[in-house]
Specification:
The protein has two helices and no strands. The protein has 130 residues and is mainly α. 0% of the residues are buried.
């Protein structure tokens, strides 16, 4: 009975360590994603406000025709930046999920190996008792 308690305590501690590592990885991924998206939003907003500032200085139709292509370029650049950020966040999330999967797989393999070792130990003890 005492041996079972020790095994249970070890297993619980290992599970807690893995859970803490999973939480750490997930939190780092969220922080990274938030930072990337916030930086993209900041750059997009800065470009948009700069364009609006130029647009307010336009006084005639010719000035408007000169500024509109720049507005289209800013919109395209902002869209590309947003999509690039989304792709980077997605790639980082996949990497994080792979790392979490590896931790879970390692925990499972470790628990299986320990259980097999115990079964072999008990089997040897039972065969000696005969």
């Amino acid at each position: 009975m005492y041996q079972f308690n020790e095994q249970f305590t070890k297993s619980t501690a290992q599970f807690a360590d893995v859970a803490a590592n999973v939480n750490r990885l997930a939190l780092e991924n969220v922080q990274n994603a938030f930072g990337l998206q916030l930086a993209a939003i900041e750059e997009n907003a800065t470009a948009a406000f700069a364009f609006i500032g130029e647009l307010t200085n336009v006084r005639d139709f010719d000035g408007l025709k000169a500024v509109l292509p720049k507005g289209a370029q800013i919109a395209r650049t902002s869209t590309e930046r947003s999509l690039g950020t989304a792709q980077e966040v997605f790639a980082n999330t996949i990497k994080t999920n792979e790392a979490i999967g590896a931790l879970a797989r390692g925990q499972s393999e470790k628990a299986t190996a320990q259980a097999q070792a115990e079964v072999e130990k008990v089997t040897k003890a039972a065969s000696k008792a005969k």
